[in-house]
Design brief:
The chain has 314 residues and is mainly alpha-helical. It contains eleven helices and three strands. It is globular, with a radius of gyration of 22 Å.
Length: 314
């Protein structure tokens, strides 16, 4: 679409190629997943804010994680849904594409940091329960959240600038359902090897920087729990970490395959599939992961439903 050595001022998203029937079926599926994601994460935020039983660091971090999940999926999915309804490709301006990529990467970085902090929180709760309220006080929790948000946005300024600093002379058609960095780099005629290597190192720093504390924390947690003499005590201790550990496996697994690779310009189908896991499936699963195996959240939800029913019948 572009002439040689010209810079793109707009991009076209391929989205999901296929028949109109397939696109409408995908639209209905993704709309359902997106609706459940918004509702489920909003419910978590609400009950954490209003229920006194959930006024603890674990649920404070969980509410912020739900906020991040809502924002991450809302940056991608509405654009994807609109593209599925159009007969052709979806056109995005350069500024919209830059904003989408920057917000997606920044919020994702903040989420990694927050998940790592949640692992440390579980370590303190299980291994140092007597000092838990002193170490994980409200001031510490607030600073953890602030640093996670601020660092996430500051850390991604250069990667996004470097991505759009190249000359896009091959085409302005992005073979994905959002402005994917890997597919964008395939459109430039410049040499991107050094930039891709730096981006690879930065991805390792973020993921490993939050994964290492998580691994260390769970190593100590498992060691401590196994020393508990009673089976019920071990089961109770493990149950406080099960939800977070499940989220770690799903979240880190999908993001590892998407971002931690020396060559950013992977095949389009590979990027599209893994991107769906990160932006659609994981935010959708988040409310179920943190509610189905958490007795306190289930109890708070049950009481909330009873109060709502009581108000309706009045």
């Amino acid at each position: 679409m572009l002439g040689n050595y010209s810079s793109a001022t707009e991009f076209y998203l391929v989205g999901f190629p296929g028949s109109r029937h397939l696109r409408y079926s995908l639209f209905a599926t993704f709309l359902f997943l997106y609706s459940v994601t918004l509702m489920g994460n909003s419910v978590i935020i609400t009950i954490v804010c209003v229920d006194k039983r959930l006024q603890s660091p674990m649920y404070f971090f969980l509410s912020h994680l739900s906020v991040l999940e809502i924002l991450i999926t809302s940056i991608i999915v509405p654009v994807m849904l609109w593209g599925l309804l159009l007969p052709g490709m979806l056109r995005l301006s350069l500024s919209v594409c830059v904003a989408q990529l920057f917000l997606n990467l920044s919020l994702g970085t903040s989420e990694f940091l927050l998940v790592g902090a949640m692992a440390v929180d579980r370590y303190v709760a299980v291994c140092n329960p007597l000092r838990y309220s002193i170490i994980m006080n409200s001031q510490t929790c607030n600073w953890v959240v602030i640093v996670s948000w601020v660092f996430g946005f500051l850390f991604q300024i250069w990667p996004v600038y470097a991505t759009f600093h190249f000359t896009y002379c091959k085409s302005n058609v992005v073979n994905n359902f959002f402005c994917d960095r890997g597919q964008l780099l395939k459109l430039t005629c410049d040499n991107t090897q050094f930039t891709e290597f730096v981006l690879f190192l930065m991805a390792i720093v973020i993921i490993a920087g939050s994964l290492i504390p998580t691994i260390i924390s769970y190593t100590y947690i498992i060691t401590t729990v196994l020393k508990i003499p009673s089976a019920s005590g071990r089961r109770k201790a493990f149950s406080t970490c099960a939800s977070h550990f499940t989220f770690v496996i799903i979240g880190y697994g999908s993001c590892f395959f998407l971002y931690v690779k020396p060559k950013q310009t992977q095949a389009a189908e590979y990027n599209r599939t893994v991107s769906l896991m990160v932006t659609v499936v994981t935010p959708f699963l988040n409310p179920f992961i943190f509610t189905l195996r958490n007795d306190k959240v289930i109890e708070a939800l049950r009481d909330g439903v009873k109060r709502c029913c009581h108000l309706i019948h009045k």
